[in-house]
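Aim 2 progress update. The chain analyzed this quarter is reproduced below.
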Amino acid sequence: MNYEIDNLDKQILRLLMQDVTRAYTDIAKELHVSGGTIHVRMKKLTEMGVVKGAQLLINPSAVGFDICAFIGVFLEKGSEYKETVEKMRAIPEIVELHYTTGAYSMFAKIICRDTKHLREVLNEKLQSIEGVQRTETLISLEESINRQIEIE
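Predicted structure tokens:
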């Protein structure tokens, strides 16, 4: 696809990143273009993989999930990565998983109700996966920054 992101695309992205529920017609008025232009641009940005979708963000604490932990996962063999990831997909408390360089083979973000729930996830789900050698847990005390990249 020979489509380059231009200034209008960037303006559209910035506005939607501030409020994803904003109507295309409102964005069109602000940017002095037609609603169809916004629709076509968003379709192209989605097809290109620039836009991955829109999602409703839930505050975990508001629904009883008060513990955020980061788990460093050590694998017995790096070759077991894909199989381990597939097994970890079945653990709903894992909300992010990254294949990393450095001390850990993988790094997971886990959201749990409390420390008892975290212990259950670690002992009964994560550490029982074949190929997981051991884990190291870091509990988040506060999320200080949570943001998207800046579109210049």
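Residues 7-47 form a domain with the Arc Repressor Mutant, subunit A fold (CATH 1.10.10.10). The first strand starts at residue 67 and ends at 75. These observations will guide the mutagenesis experiments scheduled for the next reporting period.
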